């Protein structure tokens, strides 16, 4: 089986999954088996691209010429493969979780959910392996449109309002800024293909490049840089598996992944360091980190606190990319992986708490650790991963981000990252600690005085245990991802 065929399979498997899910809609066990088989097949195909990529093989597919120099084309490169590996693996785990959650919570329109999830993963593969900005933009927009019905899944007025905010901001930024930046890049550089070191000539106006960089950063609304972040908290009206998709598997990761590719393969480090806009965009990313952390600290609804935590953590990735140093880019790319495992675990736990204990507010979760020990232990592990301390993989990404600020001699930003880490301790750790070390939850004790264990459905419990274990595994064995990142920088 040729490597180019494997690349095309990564795009076709989600579409075949969509067809299979629709054909088996009336038989839910078969429908969900189709989702799991497709997700497993996709991950297997993506992993087969890993070694050829490291061996220096060129793996590319050219589908269609739209105009001279404007093509629908795909190519495997290290950062794209990193993103595809994470997304395809987490598709498997999220499907397992969703089976337990959707049944346990009695959600309607489950076939639509699994169908659109498959389309979303297909869009992610298109973004990950896009050879140029034109191809990337098409799949970027497909991802926005196919996730909108997932955000409005509940069909309530609140869900529709959240969906309007979601769609309005993401389409508005992509058409108003991102598309214009792509057109300007084509006119200035004569190409939209991603190239090591960037595509712009050395004599290109620094002022013009500054404007272009601002348009890219604001145009990639999925990266949730302030002030274009409101869609993310608004989308929390969606079911928890959708929140996991938005925060860990697809949407926000697509946003920061695009920014990494733009910084590395459209501008290049030398160009980024030479233009005036880079410095103030760094401080804008820093402001997003700090302000979102403060807002998260004030939220009593668990999913909203996690949503603002995501805005803050995405700021870390954006900041690392804009530092234009090897360590900063390494930290950003690693944080895509570490945040994916940590945040998906936190949302899995939030959904498990809703299904098993019917609680959504943080002040209701005192003593819950005695009733849901597996869930709250996973929450604790994932919190440590987001904070960036052992025994979790988040330690590595935060270390390289700090090293990036050192390399760039950005001492203020280094201090701000430290403050933000302290804030993340303040808004995450009290939740599991109070769950285990307080006893204000009378429902946790039976009439005989024993603790009443009531966890989420088994598939959901298995999924959150796997991702929590992944947080620890990534501390011990980060090398597979690190090798990819070093090959791409």
From TrEMBL:
Keywords: Cell membrane, Membrane, Transmembrane, Transmembrane helix. Residues 130-424 form the NADH:quinone oxidoreductase/Mrp antiporter transmembrane domain. Coiled coil: none annotated. It is found in: Cell membrane; Membrane. Residues 70-114 form the NADH-Ubiquinone oxidoreductase (complex I) chain 5 N-terminal domain. Belongs to the CPA3 antiporters (TC 2.A.63) subunit D family. This is Monovalent cation/H+ antiporter subunit D family protein.
